[in-house]
Amino acid sequence: MRIVSLVPSWSEWLVDLGVEPVGVTKFCVHPEGLHRRVARVGGTKQVDVSRVHALKPDLVIACREENVKAQVEALDLPVLVTDASTVEGAWKDMLRIAEAVGRAAHGRDWVSRIQAAWGQPRTAEWTAAYAIWREPWMVAGGDTYIHDVLRWWGVANAFADEQRYPEVTHWGGAAVVLLSSEPYPFREAHAKALREAGQTALLVNGEAFSWYGSRMLHAVQDLRALRSDIAQALSRKT
């Protein structure tokens, strides 16, 4: 089956299902080397329609979060559109994709292992702002996958009442600001500047919070450490 994936998380998921796509975006960096050994069809929001057509795919996999509706519709090809805006929604989409590519049993096994590793949602102990950009500052709102990952691992989102990725001029009373490694590449200098301004800040691995699919299993170590990392950061402040 010839598949083009327009979503980094789903490209990795396909490979782990044993169905390597024939085309991916330039951001499909997992597993390592994938975007160099198969055809690239542009970016997640700049899909090259002619390149996709040239690959003659049986199926294109897209996502409402990452792809542009008009570009996906312009493909005029069979498309499986996903909408992984919650943890449980991601698991459902994983199973949908696995069934669509004839790997349903393998998909169920993967999802079961991830569910066991993630366990049940934790009780929130802190409130955090999850920053994805600066100049202007932008954070994850309450209708995002990032928000639900925070919730699942016991951290309340200071901007839960906002939608998508709002620009902000304050931190909404957050005990800590989480500075993601993607899409903006936050560095220690950014965290240090916030600390000097009196705000507790931590660098976090963005893939753990924004990649779904099989990356959810790889992310467990980072997510398990989140609560202790926040507690240590706040204790240093006091």
Please provide a written account of the structure.
The chain is of the alpha/beta class and 238 residues long. The chain has 2 domains: 3-117, Nitrogenase molybdenum iron protein domain (Rossmann fold), CATH 3.40.50.1980; 126-237, Rossmann fold. It contains 11 helices and 10 strands. The strands form 3 sheets. Strands 6, 7, 8, 9 and 10 form a 5-stranded mixed β-sheet that branches. The chain has a 3-stranded parallel β-sheet with strand order 1-4-5. Strands 2-3 form a two-stranded parallel ribbon. β4 (59-63), α4 (69-75) and β5 (79-82) form a beta-alpha-beta unit. α5 runs antiparallel to α6 (104-118). The radius of gyration is 18 Å and the shape is globular. The model has no long low-confidence stretch (mean pLDDT 96).
